[in-house]
């Protein structure tokens, strides 16, 4: 069956069901009718995933079925069950469904990182232009005192934690919202952050402090930078929905992408909080920690990010969405 025929035959039923579960009288829907319509909807979703995997109809049906699923289980007594469902099912599925956007976000960030790295080696003033004269001068002074990462101890831990956490959450929100300017908007934010990180590490390598800088940055950066890339993926998806709406209207695709992207941005906020705690309370003691303590924190952070944001979404997709 051609996709346009499939949509024409079922669109009214989908639309009626969507209106039904979105209306004020949603609590009066018969449980049997709700379950019956939900089963038919998931059958349509499986069919669409099999025959039209790249179509916008898959995203539409997935969103509608998720909403119906939440409605069916609305009477669960424990709120913790709904929170558990978000972390164990909803968020991993969203991550899987926009995995290509996340991969593109990662490639843009790494490309910008390399630009920042090599530019800092080629042009002495590049680092000052990117990081600012005050930061560079302070760091050079700290290096001369034998405390290259001393800037992490210039403020009280709690004050530093608040500043870093709010800044990083703000960066992720901006990376997502800039998708309103098409994917180029989000790409600009990713490139800016990638160039900054590349220039920062290159600066330390020029002072033969590469190991110190990498370990110091990755203590918190493993989670922080990964979360920025994930937010960038959400922004690219948002921008793509505006440029390439596919079968459905541009407004519908935009609203759908905004809802899904917001879910992802909210989901990565704990990563920024944990990264801010590490940067504020742990990184300042880098000289006392030793290599293996630093390596252990980095390894645990990396294993968590790889499992939850790469491996687990695949497992969840295979369990809930993969056609049988």
What does this structure look like?
It holds the Pfam family SpoIIM. It comes from Xiashengella succiniciproducens. With 324 residues, the chain is an all-alpha fold. The protein is built from 13 helices and no strands. The radius of gyration is 23 Å and the shape is elongated.
Topology of this protein?
Blueprint: H1 3-22, H2 31-51, H3 56-72, H4 79-97, H5 99-122, H6 126-131, H7 133-144, H8 157-177, H9 183-206, H10 210-243, H11 250-281, H12 286-289, H13 291-320
Mean pLDDT: 89
- State which percent range the strand residues make up: under 5%
Alpha plus pi helix count: 13
Query: Low-confidence parts, pLDDT < 50 over ≥5 residues?
Result: 75-79
The computed structural class is mainly alpha
Shape: elongated
Secondary-structure element order, N to C: HHHHHHHHHHHHH
- Tell me the radius of gyration: 23 Å
Work out the helicity level.
over 70%
Q: Between the first and last Cα atoms, what is the distance in angstroms?
A: 19 Å
The main sheet comes to: none
- Total individual domains: 2
Number of strands: 0
Protein name: Stage II sporulation protein M
Transmembrane segments: 102-121, 160-182, 194-219, 225-243, 264-283, 295-315
Organism: Xiashengella succiniciproducens
InterPro entries: SpoIIM-like
């Amino acid at each position: 069956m051609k996709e346009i025929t499939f949509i024409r035959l079922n669109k009214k039923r989908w639309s009626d069901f969507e209106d039904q579960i979105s209306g004020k009288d949603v609590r009066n829907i018969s449980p049997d009718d709700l379950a019956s319509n939900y089963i038919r909807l998931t059958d349509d979703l499986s069919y669409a995933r099999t025959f039209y995997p790249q179509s916008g109809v898959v995203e539409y049906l997935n969103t509608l079925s998720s909403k119906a699923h939440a409605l069916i289980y609305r009477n669960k007594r424990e709120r913790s069950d709904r929170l558990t469902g978000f972390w164990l099912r909803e968020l991993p599925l969203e991550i899987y469904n926009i995995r290509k956007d996340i991969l593109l976000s990662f490639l843009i960030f790494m490309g910008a990182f390399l630009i920042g790295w090599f530019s800092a080696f080629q042009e002495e003033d590049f680092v000052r232009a990117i990081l600012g004269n005050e930061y560079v001068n302070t760091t050079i002074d700290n290096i001369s005192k034998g405390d290259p990462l001393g800037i992490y101890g210039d403020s009280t831990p709690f004050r530093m934690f608040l500043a870093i956490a709010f800044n990083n959450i703000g960066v992720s929100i901006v990376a997502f919202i800039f998708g309103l300017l098409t994917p180029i908007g989000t790409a600009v934010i990713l490139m800016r952050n990638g160039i900054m990180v590349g220039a920062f590490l290159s600066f330390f390598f020029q002072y033969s402090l590469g190991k110190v800088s990498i370990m110091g940055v990755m203590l918190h950066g493993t989670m922080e930078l990964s979360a920025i890339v994930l937010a960038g993926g959400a922004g690219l998806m948002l921008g793509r929905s505006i440029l390439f709406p596919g079968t459905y209207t541009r407004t519908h695709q935009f609203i759908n992408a905004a809802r899904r992207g917001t879910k992802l941005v909210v989901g990565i906020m704990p990563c920024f909080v944990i990264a801010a705690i590490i940067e504020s309370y742990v990184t300042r003691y880098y000289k006392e920690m030793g290599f293996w303590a630093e390596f252990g924190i980095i390894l645990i952070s990396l294993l968590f990010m790889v499992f939850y944001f790469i491996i687990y979404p695949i497992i969840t997709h295979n369990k809930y969405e993969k056609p049988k």
